[in-house]
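Morning!

This is the sequence you dropped in the shared folder:
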Amino acid sequence: MSMDKNTKTVLKLGGVVVLMGSLAYASVPFYDWFCRVTGFGGITQEADAGADEVLDQYITVKFDASKARDMMWDFKPVQHEMRLKIGETGLAFYEAHNPTSRPIAGQASYNVAPYEAGGFFSKIDCFCFTEQVLQPGETVQMPVTFFVDPELVEDRDAKYVKEITLSYTFYEIDLPEDTAALTDTVKAVETNENPSSNEG
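The structure's back. C-alpha cells below.
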C-alpha cells in the first residue's frame, strides 16, 4: 500500500517537473510576443503604413546607439533628436562603419524609453528587421521610418510623455553562409597568390 502511495507521489512530482519545464520553455517566445503586442518593456510596434491621422501636437524623439562589448563596428545616430507631430511619419538614419580587415555581420536590438510609450511607437521600416553585413572599411547609413501613434494621447499613462528615446544596440552575429564562403574563397586565393606568406 505504501509502495502505491510512493509511486503516485513520484509520478505527481515528475508531472510537475515536466509541466514547469514546458512553461519555462514556452515563456520566452510568449514573453517576446507579449512585449511586441503591448509595447511592454519598451518594445516598439511594427506597421505596414503610416498613421491614419496626424495631430496638431508635437513630440520629441531622441536617438541613441550602443554596441555589445565585442562588436567592432563604429555605430552612431546621424541625428540626435527630431521634433515631429504625433502621427507624422519620421525618417531617421544611423551610421555604421567597419574599421576592421574582415567582414562583420551584425543584428540590432531595440527599445524605447519611457516604457509606457513602447506600445505607441511604430516602425514602418527599419534596418533592425534584418541582419546587416559590412565589408572591411565599409560605412553605411541605415534608415528607420516610424511614427508615434495618435492613440498615445488617450492613454492614461503615455499621454504625459513629451519625449521618447529610441535606442539600438548592435551585436556581432555569424556571417551568412554565402558571405562566409566568399570570404574563405578570397583568403584561399590570396594565400595561393602569396605562398611566401606561409613560409616560416
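Headline: Residues 23-42 have pLDDT under 50 and may be disordered.

More detail when I'm at my desk.
O.
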